[in-house]
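**Backbone geometry record:**
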Amino acid sequence: MIGCGDVTEVKSGPAFSKVSNSKLVAVMSRNPQRAADYASRHQVSKWYDDAQALIDDPEVNAIYIATPPLSHEELTLAALKAGKPVYVEKPMAVDATAGRNMEQAASERDVKLTVAHYRRQQPIFKRIKSLIDENAIGDIKYVNLQFLSPALTAEELLDPKIKWRVEPEISGGGLFHDLAPHQLDLMLYFFGPVEKAIGLSTNHAGLYPAEDFVSGLIKFRNKIMFNGMWCFSAPNDQHKDRCEIVGTDGSISFSVFGKPVIELIQGEKTENISFEPLQHVQQPMIEATVQYFLGAGPNPCTAEDGVQVMSIIDSFSNGQAAVSSFQ
């Protein structure tokens, strides 16, 4: 595991030693004290302060990259060059160009690469996928997604754990780049390939260099239309995390980041389907990735899907109207 940040403490790190045929054997941070502390607290036998040293360790046969997006491309290429499969955090990279470089390297070297869009393996989203596939609400017509959140406070912007997420040179963009990959990947998981994407973005509050308001449209190849809006400078009393899928015979509504509950409307009938929260939210995805790396299952999120998510993000958030056609 390269990177010992907060995302690895509970969401992912411990799960690598809880799924079958997997064990976290080494961790790396540029800060040796952090690496040693993480290894001690999580009962990991080795730690490094040099990424290449970890990659070259003969006991390590797969790499989890959990650093900020700026280094995803470089570290992925290094691991692939060493012939070791890679599980890389989202967003896949800072932009689609970097993602394509990673995808091409994995293909040319014939080494496995999976993107950590882990929500597609969680029970709630697998159930939504099955409802769609079963035509539970008829033919899907359109999707509306809204995400509203108040602006970061001055104190939050001083926190190094938050600050890098709104520095485009490190994260690729702002909070949209941090959160929207989960939402947009679910749309690919639900509805398949994209035909066209167009979007606009702006910086309303001016609190940091990246955009804080993004709006975008997607036309999927199956003609389903998606409309999304993200505002990270909403009034303090405005919080919203809602996605609604509308079909000819009803709708499916849910939160991507909130409580795991599906609201299913079929004609006059409304049903709420609840799921237990997961201790380690990435564990189902990590289990599927381990099976893929062992040749016992399909890739749970391909590099191609990761690149497509980055292409949509690029279309939505480059600060001006953009149209991308997807082949």
Remarks:
- The first strand starts at residue 26 and ends at 28.
